[in-house]
Write a structure and sequence with these properties.
Elements (H helix, E strand, L loop, with lengths): L2 H14 L7 E3 L9 E7 L2 E8 L2 E8 L2 H13 L11
Parallel strand pairs: 1-2
Antiparallel strand pairs: 2-3, 3-4
Helix pairs in contact: 1-2
C-alpha cells in the first residue's frame, strides 16, 4: 500500500474518533503547529514525533508503515484497540 492511501485511511479513522485535525500532521511538519504529533516517511522508514518548531521530541522510528500508523493513532487517542484497515 502506498503512503497516500494509508494516511487517508488514518485520517478517516481519526475523524471518526473525533480527533481534531489541528492536533496532528500527516506527511509534513510544515502543517504542524506547536506541540502537534507528526507522522512522515523518511526514505524507507516512518518517523513519528511531537514538534515544537524546529525541534522534534518523543521521536519513534519504524520500518513498517502499519506499525508506525498504529503507534501514531495510539499516541493521539490512547486506545489499544486493533485497527481493522479493511473496514476503513
Amino acid at each position: 500500500m502506498s503512503i497516500e492511501p494509508l494516511l487517508h485511511k488514518a485520517q478517516k479513522f481519526l475523524d471518526a474518533k473525533g480527533v481534531n485535525r489541528n492536533e496532528y500532521a500527516l506527511d509534513s511538519q510544515l502543517t504542524a503547529g506547536f506541540g502537534e504529533l507528526v507522522i512522515k516517511p523518511i526514505n524507507s522508514f516512518w518517523l513519528t514525533y511531537t514538534t515544537e518548531r524546529p525541534k522534534k521530541f518523543d521521536a519513534a522510528l519504524f520500518s513498517n508503515e502499519f506499525h508506525a500508523v498504529n503507534y501514531f493513532i495510539f499516541r493521539l487517542i490512547g486506545e489499544t484497540e486493533t485497527i481493522d484497515w479493511a473496514t476503513i
